[in-house]
Write a structure and sequence with these properties.
mainly beta; Methylamine Dehydrogenase, Chain H; globular
């Protein structure tokens, strides 16, 4: 575990400056504020893309084309479930898919908020659905991964793990990658639900993996983030199909290409952009890790657990912390003080405070950041400087991460409601 440079004094000073209100606060590396706005272009309102999975894509980038609301919003509609909504919505072909603590996966019309169907599991659904080729894939705390028809809500298959499945599936090239509280990352055939391979960590896997360039990146409650080659997972599945001939050679199972240990459990999902893995840890730190080698490029210390997953685009990392801040950090590496420790981000563009704890993972669409908060609000902030452009109050904390499609923000709340927010 490499040493993390102490930035707490700087962050405390920045937090005091932020207490005056909700506007973005500018900070910088060590004691010198940058007072530099992020160079980000406004989105094209005529450009539209579905939001098929957690944080938009298999790399968990949180960055989508188009434009969302940039001024005050109102509810186009609200949809009530039976319990809290921690699940983050997926939006595909005019339908919103979301799970609820009431044990159901819901399909809701994006235009009118009317229920299309519901699929009942055996326990709470905190998992965020992934919608690919007409099938919705989702985990349940009943220990199963489900594949459900997007049109009719009929079960196609289910796969039973050893414990609950609170995290979200990631679907790439006909394979469903999903973690379980039984400490395993599973690779499942998307069409049939058969196991194609599994990788065991030393702790529960509570969040979605990221998949990029033939590698699965997954974080665990054992305090580590892992890179696992897809080919190795597939090979392990092939070995199991051939049966056990008594040879103990393969009993060790799949080995990670690399493992990076942090100082506490990891509930953040990895984000992979331009060959770098960005992930938060409950040790209060954001990590930037070389995707190929596993070398830690830089670290950034906050004053609270980082369970929010970074959104990354155009050289900027946007990530929230339990210290009530949302940060904008440069992806570039500041020169390290010593060869045996990682540096810091080259630039700490800004931090925006005045919130509660940030569990929700931000979404970047155009020049606006959309994020939920434990203070019950959903926020739209300027990606340039962190200025709050609007906020909308729910009746519960917002751990769900927004999906932004065709100018509308879809997000769940612990008040049991799914919201569709549009510019008023």
């Amino acid at each position: 575990m490499r040493r993390v440079r102490d930035r707490r004094g700087f962050l405390r000073a920045g937090a005091v400056a932020c207490l005056a209100g909700l506007a973005g606060c500018l900070g910088g590396s060590d004691d010198e504020p940058t007072e530099t706005e992020v160079d980000v272009a406004a989105g094209d309102p005529d450009e539209r893309a579905d939001w098929p999975t957690f944080q938009f894509d298999a790399r968990n980038t949180g960055h989508a084309p188009g434009q969302g609301p940039t001024d005050d919003v109102e509810a186009r509609w609200t949809f009530s479930t039976g319990e809290m909504v921690y699940s983050s919505p997926a939006v595909v072909d005019g339908v919103v898919y979301v799970g609820s603590q009431d044990g159901n996966l819901y399909a809701v019309g994006a235009d009118d908020g009317e229920e299309r169907w519901r699929f009942r599991t055996g326990d709470a659904v905190t998992s965020s659905p992934a919608v690919v080729d007409g099938v919705v894939y989702v985990g349940s705390q009943d220990g199963n991964v489900y594949a459900v028809g997007a049109d009719d809500g009929e079960e196609r298959w289910h796969f039973e793990t050893g414990e609950m499945v609170p995290g979200s599936p990631t679907v790439v090239d006909g394979v469903v990658y999903v973690g379980s509280s039984d400490n395993h990352l599973y690779a499942l055939d998307a069409e049939e639900g058969d196991e194609r391979g599994a990788f065991e960590t030393g702790g529960t896997i509570q969040r979605a993996p990221a998949v990029a360039d033939g590698t699965v990146y997954v974080a665990s409650g054992d305090q580590s983030v892992y890179a696992v080659d897809v080919e190795d997972l597939e090979a392990e599945g092939d070995d199991e199909d051939e049966g056990d001939d008594g040879d103990d050679e393969d009993e060790a199972g799949v080995e990670a290409r690399w493992e990076v240990a942090t100082g506490d459990m990891i509930q953040s999902r990895p984000t992979v952009v331009d060959g770098v893995v960005y992930v938060g840890s409950n040790d209060d730190t954001v990590y930037a890790i070389d995707a190929d080698s596993g070398d830690v490029r830089w670290t950034f210390l906050t004053e609270g657990s980082v369970v929010s997953s970074p959104a990354v685009a155009d050289g900027v990392v946007y990530v929230g912390s339990f210290d009530t801040n949302l940060y904008a950090l440069s992806t570039d590496l500041e020169e390290a003080e010593a060869a045996d420790e990682p540096g810091n981000p080259e630039t700490h563009y800004w931090s925006s405070s005045g919130f509660g704890q940030v569990r929700s993972s931000p979404a970047l669409v155009g020049d606006t950041i959309y994020v939920g908060n434990e203070d019950s609000y959903v926020y739209g902030l300027s990606a340039r400087d962190g200025e709050v452009r609007w906020r909308y109050s729910t009746d519960g904390g917002v751990a769900s991460s927004p999906a932004v499609v065709d100018g509308v923000v879809y997000v769940g709340s612990t008040d049991g409601t799914l919201y569709a927010l549009e510019e008023s």
